[in-house]
Structure formats: C-alpha cells, structure tokens
C-alpha cells in the first residue's frame, strides 16, 4: 500500500483545487473554462441548403466539435454545474479537491471531499462525491460515490435512490440547482450501506485463489492477470474478503489497463467500476470460506 499512498486520488490527471480559489480560477485550473455552443447542422443537396434536426456541440475555446446531438439537447454549462457545487461547499457539505476533463472535454469532472469515513480492519476508507458533466449523447450530469482506500484506490458506485437529483437529470430538461440536495442525501445513504458491506467483508474469511478464480471465471489454468492478483494477495497475506478485494482494488486502480487516463476513467465510470462493485458484493455473498 505504501507504494501508492502518496499519490493524489486523481493520479495527477486533474488539477488541485483549494478553498481560496474563485469560480473562474477553478474553471481555468480544471481546464473547463469554456462553454458548449449548440451549432445547427445543415447540408447541401442539389444546390439547396437542407436543415437537420441535429446540432454540433462545439467547444467555445477550440471550436472543436466534440459531439453531435438532437436539437432537443440542452447543454449544461461547466460553470453552471460548478456554481451548484460551490453552494454546497459554502455550507460545509462538500469541498472541491480536484477538477479535470476526460476525452478532450466530453466529460468534465469535479472531485469533492466529504467528512464521511469508516474504519475497516486497519484501513480507513474515505467518501468522495464525483460530479461529472458529460457533453455526450445519451449521458446526463451525474454524481457517484467514490470509496477511497488508504492507497488511493477508489471503488466507484452509483448513489442509492437519486430520485430526481442530477443523476437522473436528462439533457432535455433544464438544470436546477436544487437537484444537488437529493444527491447529497443519497451520498450519505449509499455510504452507510457500503460501510456495512465493507465491515462484513472484513469479518468474512475467504480463500483468495478460490475467490479470484470464481470472479474471473477461470476454473483451471493461469493467466497473467490472475497470476498478478495471486502474487499480491500472497504478498499481503490476504485472508478476509476485504483483504482479497483490496488486492483487486489496488491492481485495477494502479496497474491494470492501458495508461493512467484510460484506467482512471474506467475505475470511476466505466467497466472497472462495475467489475469492482460486483467483486465486493461477491466476496461476501459467495461464502468462499478459507
């Protein structure tokens, strides 16, 4: 764990945000100081200009088209989402710790620290709220809970019952600052549920190899990924479900995948996030005793 303990939770792929920063400074530091303009798309056919029901989403700073969507799309500007978070920072509920972008601006994110912590065995797990503003077709502003271990490995999970919070806000609706409160409430509910699950995992004995083979669906033989997992589990002397899961958490956050940016995106909101959530539940439910 010490190998990764001094890393930033965002792996240096975003920028550090301090409380003294003004809104404009935060946007600049996060590389999100631009707007999305919805530009009508037209075509030329036999000398005529043909209108379409689509618009191009264009970054105001680079004039780069980052997505094509229907005319019913209502862009949520980065500044609008940031204003929402800052309102809750004023009340002491959240503290923006970092901000950044993925995929040339298709996703703008802000990582917010909270006062949520739980001790699991010898580990202290901290709760973060990840707020994402996607400028992509089929995606809406969302919030996820990041459960951060001491080696800065994150388990990213959807919020319980977001109801009409920003996690459920369609780009076809107007964005309302009041939606954030629902997500803050859901964050506490979700953290409490996962705190119980992690505590139960720490009390559950497992045989690491049996657990990993069942999870990876590798009943026989060996793969590089399974070998790396078993080696770290042996090094850490993993005996409980939480310890065995912690090995997966470290490897998927810091070692597996193609590059830091791809890995972080997958851990926070992609395939790794789904896999790790399933892995934690499975470690307890499977009852693969040692």
Kindly describe this structure.
By secondary structure, this protein is an alpha+beta fold. Helix content is 37%, strand content 26%. The strands form 2 sheets. The chain has a 6-stranded antiparallel β-sheet with strand order 1-5-6-7-8-9, with helices on both faces. The radius of gyration is 21 Å and the shape is globular. 38% of the residues are buried. The model is unreliable at 164-169 (pLDDT under 50).
The helix-and-strand class reads: alpha+beta
**Beta strands, count:** 9
Task: Return the string of H and E elements.
Answer: EHEEEHEEEEEHHHHHH
Low-pLDDT parts are 164-169
In order across it, which strands form the biggest sheet?
1-5-6-7-8-9
Secondary structure: helix percent: 25-40%
Shape: globular
Q: Alpha-carbon distance between the termini? A: 23 Å
